[in-house]
Amino acid sequence: MLSVEDWAEIRRLHRSERLPIKAIARVMGISRNTVRSALAADGPPKYQRATKGSIVDPFEPRIRELLQQFPTMPATVIAERIGWDHSIRVLSGRVAELRPVYLPPDPASRTTYLPGEIAQCDFWFPPITLPVDHGQSRPPTKLPVLTMTCGYSRWLSAVLVPTRGAEDLFAGWWQLIHRLGAVPRVLVWDGEGAVGRRRHRKTELTQDCQGFRGTLGAKVLICNPADPEAKGIIERNHDYLETSFLPGRSFAGPDGFNRQLSAWIATANTRRKRVLGCAPADRIDADRHAMLTLPPVPPVTGWRSSTRLARDHYIRLDSNDYSVHPAPPDIRADYRCGDGRDWRRFRGASCRYRLGTIGRSTQDAYNVFRGCSYVSPLSTASATTAL
Q1: Number of domains making up the chain
Q2: pLDDT tens for residues 365-378?
Q3: Is 283 exposed, middle or buried, given 0-12, 13-18 or 19+ CB atoms closer than 10 A?
Q4: Alpha-carbon distance 367 to 177, whole Å?
Q5: Same domain, 11 and 95
């Protein structure tokens, strides 16, 4: 057998020295056929023993037949079916080689979206403790950040809202959609209590969500339980927020948190994404152009209610009590709370309160009734009640 050194020398003499085959055979002392074989070989010569076969070879047709019917059948069960009485290691090795041929294709793949087609929504709970009004602070479980990501452009939007309740959820949701400037045709959610749930393979939306999506003209889709892959885009953005936005930052309150979050998202949307081959900012125009236009009349959001004043002349909004001028006897009050400043009307009387956006706590209630005004400080217990 020709050695590797002789094979390398033959190729050197032929390629570098330009010697003919006859001269190489004379210099090396080998036959011309050996020289021709060395020059025609793709790699160095090596010794290969002729295979003697395996003890599993006679059983292979039966193994293939079983795997064709049952691709996931364990090797131990196959050994019982074919009457195998030798080492299980030899059989399991052959089964491992044959099984991929009969397994169905892996359904996992990267989903692509059309412009304006879909947006994924969810809550992110940052692992921090955030101070709010009157020396209070909130743990991560009470810091819901509403996030939304467009499927085609991967455009990210987020805002910190007071609670996961319907009043705050739809107010924050409309804020994100209004910032986007268009309405995605399909909005995907988990089984969020204020939005809806998945039951009997059908989406059941709440009345508030039906009214909200009806105003927008969009479709709201609820994912199946225990199916995080259905919202993989938004889940990856949550990891992105925890690893890129939070480290090294401190927040004085909810307003500061939202300001820093908005500034960071504006920069993050200009960064190139490998899956897109460009930045979300390069695709958002095409994505927005294919979406639905904003409704001419915005949806009704925020805290709105109607109640009849009790004898103690207090109105409860969420978990806070607000005093009302005692002059109106048993009238009906309609009140609403939106973006942090609350205006209420009482059939000819108007009341204005200064509310904290997140804590919804107040120190003074300024009431105006029939031209008479007064200041009614609330008690510390009711004024500083946290949600």
Answers
A1: 4
A2: 323 222 223 233 33
A3: buried
A4: 34
A5: no
